[in-house]
Structures are given as structure tokens and as C-alpha cells.
Amino acid sequence: VAMTTDEKRITLVDHQQAEKLRGGDFICPACREPVRIKNGQVMPAHFAHIGPACDVDSEGESTIHLRGKQWLMQLGQLLGYAVTLEVYYPEIRQRADVVWEKPDRKLILEFQCSPLEAKRLKERTKGYAHLGLEVIWILGPRYYSQRPGSMQAKFLRWDTQHGITCGIATGKAF
Asked: Quick one: the chain helix, strand, coil %, rounded to 5?
């Protein structure tokens, strides 16, 4: 996700769109520094900083993470949500992977593919809560195990409607 110099938000959804936009001037929504389109054959099309990445940047994302966010975007749209990728919240200096919105509800979806320490998980979850936002952590394939343990346990959540839940995506859908 990037912005044009006139503040229009751009979400790359495929290689064809990226090719049409190539050569345009884009900036990072968080740090306002220049970014460029990367449109190779291996990874999904995405934006990357031209210089050093900012401290809230999500560069270095794996193919599965990029595709997973696209899949969550499409799923949200099918479920009737307005969907935005990579929303930056400056008050807490965090960038949400995916935001699903309806008039009465806003959900933050974090698709966690890389290891995340329990302390950082707690900080990020509290940051969203501070803004009154509900966050759902969806674990990527790295977290899948026939014998879940502490790596998955820190993501368990409880609510009265569903009991204990933990969402793990195998990556087969995307």
C-alpha cells in the first residue's frame, strides 16, 4: 500500500495493475518517504521503500504473508466489509495488516507469519485496544502443528460466545 503525492491511497492487487502504475510517484503512508513498485515473477506486486525502510514498514514480507493479506481482503469484501490493507495508526505507531469495517464494527486482522514474542504481541494488542479497536490474530502456516505448544498458546483468546479460539491458516487457500 502506498499513496500518490496528492494523498490518494493505492493498494496493489495484481501484476497487471502494478504494470499500469509503474513510473508513478508514490510515498509511504506512514513516513511519507518515496516508495517504488516491485513487480517480479516470484512475489506478488508490492511497494518498497527506495531508501532505508521506515520503522513501521512491513518490507521483507514473505510471499505467503502478501498473498494471505490479499486473501483476507477478498474474504472481507465477500462478507460485506469495506476493506483496507496496511492502515497506519500514528497514535500507537502500528500498521494493521487488514482492516474490515462496517458502520457498527471495525476489525483489525493481523496475519502473523513470522515469530512474535509474547511481550510484543501484548504491546500491539493493547495498542489497538487503546484506540478501541478489536484485533484478531490469524496465524500463518509456520504456526501450524499437530502438537500446538507455547508458540501458539500466546495467541489463544477467550470470549463468551466462542470460548477459546485460535485461528491458524495453512496457506492452502492462497
From this structure: 25, 30, 45
